[in-house]
Amino acid sequence: MIRILIVDDQILLRESLKSIIECDNEIDVIGCAENGFEALRMCDELLPDLVLMDIKMPLCDGVEGTKLIKARHNTIKVLILTTFDDDENVTRALKNGADGYILKDVTPEELILIIKNAVKGFYILSNKTYGTVAKRLDEDRTVHKDFQPDKLGDKSERGMVLKDAELKILRLIAEGKSNREIASVVYLSEGRVKNIISEMFTKLKLRDRYQLISYAYKNNLIE
Length: 223
Known about the structure:
Helix content: 40-55%
CATH architecture of the largest domain: 3-Layer(aba) Sandwich
Distance between the termini: 40 Å
Largest sheet: 5 strands, parallel
Order of helices and strands: EHEHEHEHEHHHHHHH
Number of domains: 2
């Protein structure tokens, strides 16, 4: 059973999310909080698997709440619930350790699938705002202070580092697709896709998908 904590200052939205999520018999909403401080206290007491965190709340918003929870409970997944035009706060939340974000216009079916994938360890990034968020992460080097793609040489050299198959997978990652979805597009096994992505990390001296997308935008490998 997946244990969920919902954090939102609007009781109507909390109860609506609770009703939607508990329609799935594999997920249990173990509590609701109305700000980041209360969410931290409930995480200490209940140890949920995942926190569904609204980003704009009084007293302690989702950005700070994520930071507090991740500092004390690094294994708890935190998903930011946000609107289309709030990529600045989303970027700050990701810097604070959030495991991804979703827009409030997702369908109930999508929400359930997203929660399950997040608990499995997938980064959750909305296709609609992924490019903007990736660019913001690239602009703020405090996300990973040791990220120095310039060491790889000029742009023509960097582009030639990746094979055509790797570039195709990179572009699919930029669209926010999971390894399974990528595998179905490129007709490879999910395990092989995972290995190719790991090889790209090693080749480019990067650490995660955020850095990979940032590298791609910086070097004009994707639009």
